[in-house]
Amino acid sequence: MKSDTTFNFSVPFKRHRTWRTVVGLALGLLLVMGNASAGSILFIGNSFTFGWGSAVRFYRADTVTDLNNQGIGGVPALFKSFTTQAGLDYEVFLETQPASGFDWHIENKLGAIGQRPWDIVILQSQSVLDPKKPGDATVLISTTRQLAEFLRERNPAVELRLTATWARADQIYTPKGAWYGKTLEDMTRDLRAGYDQASAGTSGIKSVVPIGEAWLRAIQTGVADANPYDGIDAGKINLWSYDSHHASVYGYYLQSLVLFGSITGRDPRSLGTNECSGFELGLSPAQVDALQQVAFDQLAASDGVKASPLKLSKPVRSTQCKRSR
């Protein structure tokens, strides 16, 4: 059954923006001072990290380093764009493989992963925890521990974060799905529980990033549609891609906003509704505004991120992102 709640993207967004002169001066100051060095960050994951099924997959691949040399930009490139706009200079790397869990990376990619010590590593595993036993976190728990131990051998102070992914519509609404007959809330809760177990079983995990919970929040607040199999409600977005498994541009954009806020501790709304990557990927200012609000609300609830939205007094037209490495 469809929710009666609808976020009307045709209504002009209310967050006001400052005059062009102030924005220009601020950007110029950043160029003079340079972005603050924030260290190296490696994203280890699968198609949920590299943006399968969307324009995010190869987005701004020249701004990040793909350790597998596949020309991927993905969620790491969106994170790089957000942090650059925020005045933070991360060296961003990724090591991704479709349909893989941590066991695959351990068996095949330790040479690439261990080529240098990392300051931060973001870890994303199987979308059903274990494809052989959906919902079972046993393998996730053991491989999280193995991968964390390996990374700490290179840098004992490495900051490790796990990402709890979203509920898959194909797993809930189709008869072959492991969560068929259950709800989005059920699958979101099960995935989060699995990652929480993995975090508890490995000392020193900084946090579990609440991607799936933000996704669910977008649906519950009327920003996104709950079931792509019965059509998309007017005024709502579809967070899933055409396979109802992976994310759409909207879904990956939300994922990247949550990662940005969780890792940096900053309010995603501080990027502003004229955020340039949203513009480049075809999102309207109202959609950017809505997804930033969802990301902030989730992070305020789960991570204690403090409110610090960008407050502008006059509209500033969205433009392409500046090129930077």
Describe this structure in words.
The chain has a six-stranded parallel beta sheet with strand order 2-3-1-4-5-6, sandwiched between helices. It has a domain at 36-215 and 238-266: Rossmann fold (3-Layer(aba) Sandwich). The protein has twelve helices and six strands. The chain is of the alpha/beta class and 325 residues long. Helix 9 (211-220) packs across helix 10 (249-264) and helix 10 packs across helix 12.
How is the largest sheet built, in terms of strand order? 2-3-1-4-5-6
Look at the structure and give the mean pLDDT: 91
Tell me roughly what share of residues is in helical segments: 25-40%
**Total number of helical segments?**
12
Per CATH, what is the topology of the domain at 36-215 and 238-266? Answer: Rossmann fold
What class do helices, strands and sheet pairing give?
alpha/beta
Distance between the termini: 46 Å
TL;DR?
By secondary structure, the protein is of the alpha/beta class. Helix content is 40%, strand content 11%.
Fold blueprint:
Layout lengths: L19 H14 L2 E10 L1 H4 L14 E2 L7 H12 L2 E9 L5 H7 L1 H4 L6 E4 L14 H17 L4 E5 L5 H5 L10 H17 L4 E5 L1 H10 L28 H16 L11 H5 L4 H18 L23
Parallel strand pairs: 1-3, 1-4, 2-3, 4-5, 5-6
Characteristic terms for this protein:
325 residues, alpha/beta, Rossmann fold, 6-stranded parallel sheet, 6 strands, 40% helix
